């Protein structure tokens, strides 16, 4: 299969998977969790390097996943204890990142160890990194992200009602006997797995954007969670495809172009959403004025 | 409501498919172009210094396509859509290795089953590479600062080109011999020039630790503010230590690098000034990337000469 198609598939899978779990983050006002994790994984890779004395993918991914889940865990714990969501995110990721910087300058300043170098992938190179599983040859990134995406769909499918109630009204959920704290931790763990797997495959910027933008755009179009989840997947896929075309046309960074087209798509929704769009609201006001 | 939502979703899917269709067309067009003109060997390289070797050894038989342009820090390089086409068309790929290219290097290792990918550093004896004592096997990748090591890289390129295109074996051997001779002269020039600096002032102060091989090969002490990793921030003590060395040894100049921000080194100059020792900035050195194409510094030899001349002029 052509390289271009694999890149579109990878981009779409990342966008769909991140957009999907990102919806819950938006509802919980934790949209910047992805960005937080992208910084917080630094100590993870440094410690993984000390333990394994290698910058091999597997070890880096393990270190990053452990710290990613820990980041989510710390943020959730602080939030449960009464710290505001955004403050909890800010405190946790800056502290972890700083620990990473201190560790690097204390012990590893003579070797090349930073997240860009050893962890973040590049979507342009995805088609050359093939892996064969059960006789099927696909890029390693496609295997990994479709695996994570399937797991996300499964978990959200199993706990759909609980997640929905917890996201919209945690107090009522608690009153109804739903284990709110457990559901929160579950969601956070899911997000950090998604994020780290996607970082390793396509780099940070695309992931951070796709966790927020498709969900936010979908939120403008619908008030129903099911439709929001569906729309965010669609928006993600459309941005990935449009972004790839832009990247081919202007010969620019692919993840950059995909992120930009997600931004453009959001702008369209922001202006022309039937209910919350700027244009439709102006039209509505005019119609009301005429009627009076 | 449900109807509306499903309709919307269907519309977006249709748009999505149409877009995929369009982009498919454009990639197949790319493949058609590729079929033409296959007389020359197409070589893709990472850093400009390697492109320079391949251009000098391959001459008219090889078309060189460097991925990283002038002034680009290889540690922070971001791929563009065009790189895919380049890597796709390449008959042979040359990269530095020793983890300079990070994850991109891993990709080249995996691509080796599809086309020859050659790390120019791979035949160099690890015994002469710089290795931090605490971390075995994690060598300093900046081998081009020692011209002798870069000559070994040239040999590696020559071997690879001959293996790939045996018909022009003699040309490659001649070209390589001519280039190696120039490098040999460059090496001698570097040794002589650096030796002309009084021994006590042979200290090269730069922002980041890339000049280790240069220091070892030509007998100049190298001190960097930052480690090799650009994520390792320099500490307050680093600045103070450096300032003390400058003041105590009466060192005249410090240097900035083409691919690293000069801010840090300016702090050191300021610090020395407060202690009553005037240090000037001795000029800009090329470290991880060469100068603009077309200028003398746009070639490997020109870049090394520029570095040596700047260092000698400022420290003598």
UniProtKB/TrEMBL annotation, chain A:
Subcellular location: Cell membrane
GO CC annotations, alphabetized: ATP-binding cassette (ABC) transporter complex
Organism listed in the record: Aneurinibacillus aneurinilyticus
GO biological process: response to zinc ion; transmembrane transport
Keyword Cell membrane: yes
Keywords: Cell membrane, Membrane, Transmembrane, Transmembrane helix, Transport
Segments passing through the bilayer: 6-26, 33-52, 58-75, 87-108, 141-160, 172-191, 197-221, 228-250, 262-283
Bilayer topology: Multi-pass membrane protein
Family: Belongs to the ABC-3 integral membrane protein family.
A matching Pfam family: ABC-3
Annotated protein name in UniProt: Metal ABC transporter permease
InterPro entries listed in its UniProt record: ABC_BtuC-like, ABC_TroCD
CDD domains: TM_ABC_iron-siderophores_like (cd06550)
Keyword Cytoplasm: no
